[in-house]
Amino acid sequence: MNFHVLTLFPDMIRQGCGVSILGRAQEKGYIQIRVTDIRDYADRKWGRIDDYPYGGGAGLVIQAGPVCRAYEDICKEYEEPPRVIYVTPQGRVFDQTMAEEFARCENLVFLCGHYEGVDERALERVVTDYVSIGDYVLTGGELPAMVMIDAISRLVPGVLNNQESATFESFHDNLLEYPQYTRPEIYEDMRVPEVLLSGHHANIERWRREQSLLRTWQRRPDLLENATLTKEDRRYLAALEEQEAEDEKNVLLDDSQEDSSRDM
Ligand code: ADE
Questions:
Q1: 117 pocket-lining for ligand 1 (C-beta < 6 Å)
Q2: What is the pLDDT of residues 179-196, one digit of tens each?
Q3: Atom of ligand 1 nearest to the CA of 131
Q4: Within 10 Å of residue 242's Cβ, how many Cβ atoms?
Q5: N or C: fewer beta carbons within 10 Å in the chain?
């Protein structure tokens, strides 16, 4: 899969994507990440590509010309114009389903804005998707582009090795991962759960499953709606609900007893 990134900070992308799994995936040729410095397409002195906004206001706007020319150069390499993602807090919020959809593309272009943004005419001409990584504002589009490239790349066949894929599988039922422990067995009076030292595989499997369910129930209950659950899982979750209702009843009872003893 080929990623192109149009940016004013090419080193940020090269350094961020050049290490770890993405670095290895590029070396092995599973993905290619090509970075274009928008400044290389400047037609003004000193490589200037930004200017004051018409109508006034703070900040500078990246001009349409350099962005469109950079994009046209990329298009020359392909028969079909590639999809262009403009990373912006005004976009649709990125999630795993979008990562899966983008991973099916052969070529993807990311356009990273900075300052007050990009001249709207360039966006109208080249952008196919407006995508955000969440409801907060960052200083530029490079980090969001890297987040998306990472999430998409790990879905490209070959990018993850078997062990890494197996880790990924454990998220697949829409459940959070169970807790992990390694040596030492006791760390500052905190012991590794006994069952993990037992060597009893079926019990370990059940314990891990219950921990996943518990975590998801506590931290991300919204995920349970789309989780793949067995009868046993449902029984376990029902027991958690029951326990919670029981605890709440006891708290209410304690409170009312406290109130009545104060009134006496
Ligand atoms: N640029 C600035 N903030 C952003 C965000 N949250 N998502 C995508 N692009 C951005």
A1: no
A2: 999 999 999 999 999 999
A3: 8
A4: 10
A5: C
What does the chain come to in residues? Answer: 264
Q: Is the CB of 141 under 6 A from ligand 1?
A: yes
Give the residue from 72, 71, 73 showing the smallest Cα distance to 85. Answer: 71
Please determine, for residue 165, whether its predicted confidence score (pLDDT) is greater than 90: no
Please name the residue whose Cα sits nearest to atom 6 of ligand 1.
Answer: 89
Closest C-alpha to ligand 1, atom 10: 88
pLDDT at position 264 is: 66
Nearest alpha carbon to residue 124 among 52, 71, 47: 71
Alpha carbon distance 248, 246 (integer Å) = 5
- As beta bridge partners, residue 5 has 35, 110
Which band of pLDDT confidence, cut at 50, 70 and 90, is reported for residue 257? confident
